[in-house]
Specification:
The complex is a heterodimer.
Chain A: E1 5-7, H1 12-22, E2 26-29, H2 35-40, E3 48-51, E4 60-63, E5 66-70, H3 75-80, H4 82-87, H5 89-97, H6 101-104, H7 109-114, H8 123-128, E6 132-137, E7 140-145, E8 150-152, E9 155-156, E10 163-170, E11 175-181, E12 192-201, E13 205-214, E14 221-222, H9 224-228, H10 248-261, H11 272-291
Parallel strand pairs in A: 1-3, 2-3
Antiparallel strand pairs in A: 4-5, 5-10, 6-7, 6-10, 8-9, 11-12, 12-13, 13-14
Chain B: E1 3-9, E2 12-18, H1 24-31, E3 51-54, E4 57-60, E5 73-75, H2 77-80, H3 88-96, H4 105-118, H5 124-131, H6 142-155, H7 180-184, E6 200-206, E7 212-218, H8 220-224, E8 228-232, E9 259-260, E10 266-272, H9 275-284, E11 286-291, H10 298-301, E12 315-323, H11 326-331, E13 335-342, E14 355-360, E15 366-370, H12 375-386, E16 393-396, H13 411-423, E17 427-430, H14 433-439, E18 446-454, E19 460-472, H15 481-490, E20 497-506, H16 520-538, H17 542-549, H18 569-593, E21 599-610, E22 620-626, E23 632-636, H19 645-657, E24 664-668, H20 685-712, E25 719-721, E26 725-728, E27 731-737, H21 738-748, E28 753-758, E29 777-788, E30 794-804, H22 811-830, E31 855-861, H23 883-895, H24 906-915
Parallel strand pairs in B: 1-5, 6-17, 15-16, 19-20, 23-24, 30-31
Antiparallel strand pairs in B: 1-2, 3-4, 3-5, 6-10, 7-9, 7-11, 8-10, 12-20, 13-18, 14-15, 14-17, 18-19, 21-29, 22-23, 22-28, 25-26, 26-27, 29-30
The chains are: A alpha+beta, B alpha+beta.
Chain lengths: 295, 919
C-alpha cells in the first residue's frame, strides 16, 4: 500500500481547490512517465496525488494568432498533429524524437516542462518559438515565458497550488528546426539538443533569430549573444541591405557564441568537451537549415 | 486508500478494489492473474515488456497508476488471441522466428497491434519507429519486423505463404518452436508467473561498498518489521559457505569478520510475508562495515604493494602458450604492429531479471525452479551448502527469458534453497533490475597488448600477446578465462612463433563470469583489429590476407595439435569475399561523391574461430522411452533459455526415428526426471546433448523393432516406424499401434526406457591434453558504417555474416542466433559499458533498439562436422565474435585513425576523426 490520497477531479476548479487545500502536500499526476517511477522506487512518497488527465486539458487549437496546447496533451498527439507540424515545426520534431511510442502516448507537454530536466526535449523548441505557459491557481492566472519558467534542475517558478494549464506558441512566419543527439537512436535522453527559429525578410534578411540549447546548462538555455550576431544579416547574393552577410562563417560564429554561453557538465552520457563540440555542430546545422544557408 | 476501479479488460468488464496508485502492471499480474504482461525493468518504463493498449493506444502498464484506467479499455496479450485462435501477429511472430526467449514478445505484440490498427500498411520505417521503445536482447529485431510485415500483409488480405510446414522433414524443414503458441499468447509461465499463493518473499542485503570488512550484523530491527519472519546470515548456513565448484573463492553470504569485495556482495537474506515487508526488512538490517582501500584497475591490483583482495594475492589464474620462437619471428619481420586494445565491463541485460521459486516437492526434496544452464550442475553446487546429498535437492529449469551466460551463476539457487531449508515453505525472489546489474557476473574487461609481425608479401610471422583480464571480485566461473583469451587471441592463423600470456586479475569491480563467447570476443576484437592495422600498413586486402594466413584443415596449429573436427574458415572467407568487395567499392564511390559532406562510409572485415563446447570430452547421456500412449518421450538436459535447444532436440529425435515431431514429447532439464547431460553452456547443446539424444532414440528404435518384429512376424530390419504405429516392410495392413507395442513390452517385462551415451574419446584421442577441445566454428563478418566526422555519430548500416554452422538443424533459428549476436556485438562496439558504481539499469546501460539495427545478411556456410548429429556444430555464441572488430575496423578506416577502445562512443569517434585529420 502506498497510502496516498488520490483524486481524479473532472473540473479545473475542483482540481485547483484540491491543490489550494493540500498546498505543498499535493503532487500533480499527468502522464506519470517521470513521476510514477519515482513513486515506484519509493524515492518519492507523495501524500496527495491529483490526477489532471480528466480536466479537459488535452487540446491543440489555433486561437488569436497562437497555437494553444493544453498542458495534459500527450507528446504523441503533438508529434502527430498537422497543425503543430505546420505552425511549430521544431516542436513537432522534438515531440517525434522524444522517448519512445508508449512513453509519448502518456507523457504530456505540461509534464515535460514541470519536470524541469535540463535535457527536456520540448523545452528548447518552445523557447526558440517564444512560447509562454499559462499557470493557474485558485487565486488566478499568470502567463510566464518558457525561457523564464525554469530555475534549475527539477525546479520551476510553479508555486504550491499552481498548475500549468496550457502552452501558447505564437504563430510566426519564420522557420524553426530541432536537432538532437543521444547515445543511441531511440529512447534516449539528449546528450545535447538544439532548437532555432529564424525569420528571413523576403527570404533574404534575418529579422528574427532565436537559439535554444538543451542539456548544456542547469536549465534549457536561450542563447541571446548568438541571436544577436544574426540579426539584420543578409544572404550573400541578396539585393537587400544588411549589416553583415549571413553565410557559413556567420553561422559558425553564432554557433560558437551559443556554446560559449552554455555550461555543460561531464556525466555518464557525455563529457562537456563532447557536448561543446557536437553542440556547436548542431547549432550551425540547425541555423543553416532554418535560414536556408548551405554550410 | 483503496478505491473501486472499473474498466474493460480484454473485452470484459472488471472491477477491482485497490490502491489507485498501484501500477496497472501489478494489478494485472497479481490481482487479475494475467501474467502475460512482463516486467523487465524497475517499473520505470525503460524496457517495454509491460506494454498494453489503453483505449487502443500503447502505454507502459508499469507507469500507469491503475486509477487512471477507470472507465477505459485495456487490452493485454491474453486478449489478442489464444493458442487455438492466434491473432495474425501472433501467428506471424511464431512463423518468422520472431520469438527466442519470448520475454519481450507480449510487449512487442501489443506495440505492433496498435500500429496495425492505426496503419494497415506500415512502411518498414514506421514499424521500426513503433517498436523503438521495446527492448529485445535475443533476436536482433529483424525477424520481429518481418513478422509485423507478414501479419500486415495477411490482414490486408494479401496471400502470404503459410509457414506451418507440417509436412516438412523435422531437420531443415519443420522449423516452428515446440512451445510457440504458448509463448506468443502470454500463456508460458516463467518463474515469476508461476502461481504459489502462500510463498514467502525474499530480498537480499547487499554491500554498498567496493571493499570493506563486515564488523557486525544486527538483525534485531529487521525482525521487528511487521511481516519479516527470518533474517539469514552466514551463521545460518548448515553446510559449506561456498559455491566453490563454480567460483572457487566466493561465499554464499559474507560472514562477520569477512570482507565484502564488491558492491552487491550478499550479506544477509530477509524472508517476509510480502515483498514490501522483505524490502523494509533489508533496509532495517544494520551492517557495520569498516571500509578498506578499493582497487578497480587491474594494473593497480598487480602492483607489488597492492592490497590483496583475496588471501593468496590478486591473480586468479594465468595461462601461456609458447610456439616456435616469437622473438626471432618478430625480429625477422618487415613490419611489426605493437598496439594495445581495451574493452569494457558488459552486462547480459536479458529482459527477464533473475528470479527463483523454491519449495519442498512431493518427495521432500528442497526444490528450486530457476533459470540455469544445467540443473544438475547447480544441484551439485547447492547440496553442500545445505549439508545435504544431491539427491535431497532438486533443480528445475523453467521457461527462461534469456541467459547469454548470466544464468550459470548458481548463487540465486543456493540462496533460495537455503531459505526453503530454514522456512520449510515456498519462497520466491526476483531481483530488481538494479540488483541484477549490481550482483550478476559481467563480461571481463580486457587490456590486450598485441605485437604482430608480417613479411612484406603479407605472411604473418610472430605474435606476442599479453592479456590482462579484470575478473572483478570473484572467480565466478572465470578461472579459464586466460586460456580462452589466448586461444581466440591467436585465431585460425598460421604463426611461426607465438609467445602468449594471459592473466585474470582480481579487483573490487563486479565479478566477471560467463557471457556469450566466454572470454573470446575481447581478444578476438583486439586480434582482428590489430590484423587490420597490419593489413592497412602493408596495403593488403583484408580477405586475401586472412586467406593467405589461415590454417588448413589437418595442419598442426600454433596450439600444438590439429583441429580434429571439420574447420570451415577458408570456406567462410571465400563466401564473404564478393560481398566485401561490393560494399568496399560502394563505400569508395560514396566517399568520393560526398567529399564535401561530414559523412564518411567505412567497410570493415573481421574473422574469428571459436572453440565451442567448453573443454574436455564429456560423457553425455540422454534417455528415450516409448510411452504407454505410444508416444516417444525424450529425456535430456539441454536447457532452453531462448536459443531453441528444446526444438532442436525434438527435431533430432524425430528425424532419427523417421517420425514427425508431433510423435515426440520432450522432458528437459529437471534433476528429478532427466540425466545429467553435462552441458553448462559453451554452445555445446546441439552437438553433445543432441548427439546423446540421437543415440538414445536409435537404441529405443532397436528395442521397439525387436518387440514389434515378433508381433508382426517379420525380421527387425523390415520394421518401419510411423507416428502412431509400426509396420512390417512399409505395409500398412501388417501393422500394430505403438501403444500396443508398449503394452507388449510391459507384458514381457522389457524396459521401455533406454539410455544413449555420447562418448567421443576414441574419435578425439588428444582429449587428455589440458583444456583441449576438438571442435571450432569459424565465421567472418563485414560491417558497413556511416560516420559523421563532425559529431562522431556512427550508424552501422549493414552487416554481412558468413558462418560455418555445420549442417543447420534449424536454419531459421541458426540465422536468428547470428542476427541476435550481431546486434549484441554492435552494442558492445558502440554503446554498452557498465561502470561500477555508476550504471544502474536500462536508463544508463544502452542496449541496441530496433532503430539501431543494421540490415543483416546471413550466409550459412554448411561444412558438416564429422561427429556431431547430422553434421551439426555449436553456434549460439560464436557469431558475436567478429561483429565488434568488423564495426571498429570500418569506423577506423572511415575516419583515418584507429579506435582501440570499445565502446566507440561518439566522443571516441570524434576524437579519432580529429586525430585522422578529418576535422
Amino acid at each position: 500500500m502506498k497510502d496516498v490520497l488520490y483524486f481524479a477531479p473532472t473540473e479545473l476548479t475542483e482540481a485547483l481547490k484540491l491543490l489550494a487545500q493540500y498546498g505543498e502536500k499535493a503532487t500533480i499526476l499527468a502522464g506519470g512517465t517521470d513521476l510514477v517511477p519515482r513513486i515506484n522506487y519509493y524515492e518519492l512518497k507523495p501524500e496527495v496525488l491529483v490526477y489532471i488527465g480528466n480536466l479537459g486539458l488535452d487540446y491543440i487549437e489555433q486561437s488569436d494568432g497562437k497555437l494553444v496546447i493544453g498542458a495534459a496533451t500527450p507528446t504523441a498527439k503533438i508529434a502527430a498533429s498537422p497543425l503543430v507540424a505546420e505552425k511549430a515545426a521544431a516542436l513537432a520534431e522534438a515531440a517525434r524524437l522524444s522517448a519512445s511510442p508508449a512513453i509519448r502516448t502518456a507523457g504530456t507537454i505540461g509534464g515535460n516542462l514541470a519536470n524541469a530536466s535540463p535535457a527536456a526535449d520540448l523545452a528548447t523548441p518552445l523557447i526558440a518559438l517564444g512560447a509562454t505557459v499559462v499557470l493557474v491557481s485558485a487565486k488566478g492566472e499568470r502567463e510566464v515565458a518558457v525561457e523564464e519558467f525554469f530555475k534549475g534542475p527539477g525546479e520551476t517558478v510553479l508555486q504550491p497550488g499552481e498548475l500549468i494549464k496550457e502552452v501558447r506558441v505564437p504563430i510566426k512566419k519564420g522557420k524553426s528546426v530541432f536537432l538532437k543527439l543521444g547515445r543511441r537512436k531511440a529512447m534516449t535522453l539528449s546528450v545535447v539538443n538544439v532548437a532555432v527559429y529564424v525569420e528571413m525578410e523576403k527570404g533574404q534578411r534575418c529579422v528574427d533569430a532565436r537559439v535554444a540549447l538543451g542539456a548544456m546548462a542547469p536549465v534549457p538555455l536561450r542563447c541571446k549573444k548568438a541571436e544577436g550576431v544574426l540579426q539584420g544579416c543578409v544572404l550573400p547574393m541578396s539585393a537587400l541591405e544588411g549589416a553583415e552577410f549571413l553565410d557559413k562563417a556567420r553561422i559558425e560564429k553564432a554557433a560558437e557564441l551559443a556554446i560559449a554561453e552554455s555550461s555543460p557538465i561531464d556525466d555518464q552520457r557525455a563529457t562537456a568537451w563532447y557536448r561543446r563540440k557536437a553542440g556547436k555542430v548542431l547549432v550551425a546545422r540547425a541555423l543553416a537549415a532554418a535560414a536556408g544557408v548551405a554550410i | 486508500m483503496d478505491a473501486t476501479i472499473s474498466f474493460t479488460l480484454n473485452g470484459r468488464a472488471v472491477t477491482v478494489r485497490t490502491d489507485p496508485v498501484r501500477t496497472l502492471l501489478e494489478v494485472l499480474r497479481n490481482d487479475l492473474g494475467l501474467t502475460g504482461t512482463k516486467q523487465g525493468c524497475d517499473l520505470e518504463g525503460e524496457c517495454g515488456a509491460c506494454t498494453v493498449l489503453l483505449d487502443g493506444v500503447p502505454v507502459r502498464s508499469c507507469l500507469t497508476p491503475v486509477g487512471k484506467v477507470e472507465g477505459r479499455e485495456v487490452l493485454t496479450v491474453e486478449g489478442l488471441g489464444d493458442p487455438d485462435r492466434l491473432h495474425p501477429l501472433q501467428k506471424a511472430f511464431a512463423e518468422t522466428g520472431a520469438v527466442q526467449c519470448g520475454y519481450c514478445t507480449p510487449g512487442m505484440l501489443m506495440s505492433s497491434a496498435a500500429l496495425l490498427a492505426r496503419n494497415p500498411s506500415p512502411s518498414r520505417q514506421a514499424i521500426i519507429e513503433a517498436l523503438e521503445g521495446n527492448l529485445c536482447r535475443c533476436t536482433g529485431y529483424a525477424r520481429i519486423i518481418a513478422a509485423v510485415e507478414l501479419a500486415a500483409a495477411r490482414m490486408r488480405g494479401e496471400s502470404s505463404p503459410d509457414g506451418g510446414a507440417a509436412q516438412a522433414r523435422p531437420i531443415g524443414g519443420d522449423l516452428l518452436r515446440v512451445d510457440i503458441a504458448e509463448r506468443v499468447t502470454g500463456r508460458t509461465q516463467y518463474v515469476e508467473d508461476m502461481p504459489m499463493p502462500d510463498a514467502l518473499h525474499m530480498r537480499v542485503v547487499r554491500s554498498p561498498h567496493l571493499h570493506a570488512r563486515v564488523v557486525a550484523i544486527d538483525t534485531q530491527k529487521a525482525l521487528e518489521v511487521p511481516g519479516v519472519l527470518r533474517v539469514l546470515t552466514a551463521a545460518d548456513i548448515p553446510g559449506e559457505n561456498s559455491i566453490e565448484g563454480y567460483s572457487k573463492d566466493e561465499t554464499v553470504l559474507v560472514p562477520v569478520g569477512g570482507t565484502v569485495k564488491m558492491v552487491g556482495d550478499a550479506v544477509a537474506l530477509v524472508i517476509a510475508t510480502t515483498p514490501e515487508a522483505a524490502q523494509a526488512g533489508v533496509a532495517a538490517v544494520e551492517v557495520a562495515y569498516e571500509p578498506l582501500p578499493a582497487l578497480l584497475d587491474p594494473e593497480e591490483a598487480l602492483a607489488p604493494n597492492a592490497v590483496p583482495i583475496h588471501a593468496d594475492g590478486n591473480v586468479l589464474s594465468t595461462f601461456a602458450v609458447t610456439h616456435g620462437d616469437a622473438n626471432a619471428a618478430l625480429a625477422a619481420s618487415d613490419a611489426v604492429v605493437d598496439v594495445t586494445y581495451r574493452t569494457s565491463y558488459l552486462e547480459h541485460a536479458t529482459i527477464e531479471r533473475e528470479a527463483a521459486l523454491g519449495y519442498i516437492d512431493e518427495e521432500g526434496r528442497i526444490t528450486v525452479v530457476s533459470g540455469t544452464h544445467e540443473p544438475h550442475w547447480h544441484r551439485d553446487f547447492v547440496a553442500p551448502v545445505l549439508g545435504l546429498e544431491p539427491s535431497q535437492v532438486r533443480v528445475i529449469m523453467p521457461p527462461t527469458g534469456g541467459s547469454f551466460g548470466k544464468r550459470q551463476d548458481p548463487w540465486l539457487v543456493a540462496a533460495t534453497a537455503l531459505a526453503v531449508y530454514h522456512m520449510r515453505r515456498s519462497v520466491r525472489i526476483a531481483y530488481t533490475r538494479r540488483e541484477s546489474f549490481d550482483a550478476s557476473p559481467k563480461r571481463h574487461p580486457y587490456v590486450c597488448r598485441y605485437t604482430v609481425g608480417a613479411t612484406r608479401d603479407g605472411t604473418l610471422t610472430g605474435l606476442r600477446l599479453r592479456v590482462t583480464a579484470n575478473t572483478g571480485a570473484y572467480d565466478s566461473g572465470g578461472y579459464y578465462i586466460p586460456n580462452y583469451a589466448i586461444v581466440a587471441g591467436g585465431g585460425a592463423y598460421r604463426w611461426q612463433g607465438v609467445d602468449a600470456f594471459a592473466q585474470s586479475v582480481y579487483t573490487n569491480g563486479p565479478k566477471a563470469g560467463q557471457m556469450r563467447g566466454y572470454g573470446t570476443p575481447q581478444s578476438n576484437f583486439a586480434l582482428e583489429c590489430t590484423l587490420d592495422e597490419m593489413i592497412q600498413r602493408l596495403g593488403d586486402d583484408p580477405v586475401e590476407f586472412r586467406l593467405r594466413n589461415a590454417i588448413a584443415q589437418h595442419e598442426t596449429t600454433w596450439l600444438g595439435y590439429p583441429v580434429a573436427e571439420s574447420l570451415g574458415y577458408r570456406q567462410v572467407l571465400e563466401a564473404i569475399r564478393p560481398r566485401y568487395q561490393a560494399l568496399e567499392t560502394a563505400a569508395r564511390a560514396f566517399n568520393e561523391s560526398e567529399r564535401n559532406s561530414p559523412w564518411r562510409k567505412g567497410v570493415g572485415l573481421a574473422g574469428m574461430w571459436y572453440r565451442f563446447g567448453k573443454y574436455g570430452i564429456p560423457r553425455v547421456a540422454a534417455e528415450a522411452e516409448l510411452g504407454l500412449d505410444g508416444r516417444f518421450v525424450v529425456y535430456c538436459s539441454a536447457p532452453d533459455y531462448g536459443q531453441g535447444t528444446a526444438t532442436v532436440m525434438v527435431q533430432l529425435a524425430a528425424e532419427t526415428l523417421g517420425v514427425s515431431r508431433a510423435a515426440i514429447r520432450l522432458v528437459n532439464a529437471d534433476t528429478a526426471t532427466t540425466l545429467d547431460s553435462s552441458v553448462p553452456g559453451a554452445s555445446r547443446a546441439t552437438y553433445w546433448v543432441g548427439g546423446a539424444v540421437c543415440r538414445a532414440v536409435t537404441a529405443l528404435r532397436e528395442v521397439v523393432a525387436a518387440v514389434a518384429s515378433e508381433m508382426l512376424d517379420c525380421p527387425p530390419s523390415a520394421i518401419v516406424l510411423a507416428d502412431d504405429r509400426v509396420m512390417a516392410g512399409g505395409d500398412a495392413r501388417r501393422s500394430v499401434r505403438l501403444s500396443e507395442v508398449a503394452a507388449e513390452m510391459e507384458r514381457l517385462g522389457h524396459s521401455r526406457k533406454v539410455t544413449g551415451v555420447l562418448d567421443l574419446r576414441a574419435q578425439f584421442p588428444n582429449y587428455e591434453r589440458e583444456v583441449y577441445t576438438p571442435h571450432f566454428v569459424t565465421g567472418a563478418q563485414v560491417a558497413e558504417v556511416l560516420v559523421n566526422t563532425t559529431t562522431g555519430q556512427a550508424r552501422v548500416t549493414r552487416v554481412v555474416a558468413a558462418h560455418d554452422v555445420g549442417h543447420a538443424i534449424n536454419p531459421r533459428d541458426a540465422q536468428g542466433q547470428i542476427e541476435g549476436a550481431i546486434v549484441m556485438g554492435l552494442g558492445a562496439a558502440l554503446m554498452e559499458e557498465f561502470v561500477p558504481g555508476v550504471t544502474t539499469g536500462f536508463s544508463d546501460y544502452y542496449i541496441p533498439t530496433a532503430k539501431t539495427m543494421p540490415d543483416i545478411e546471413v550466409i550459412l556456410v554448411e561444412v558438416p562436422s564429422y561427429q556431431g548429429p547430422f553434421g551439426a556444430k555449436g553456434l549460439g555464441e560464436a557469431p558475436i565474435l567478429p561483429t565488434a572488430p568488423a564495426i571498429i575496423n570500418a569506423i577506423s578506416r572511415a575516419v583515418g585513425a584507429r579506435i582501440r577502445e570499445i565502446p566507440a562512443t561518439p566522443e571516441r569517434i570524434l576524437a579519432a576523426a580529429r586525430r585522422g585529420g578529418l576535422r
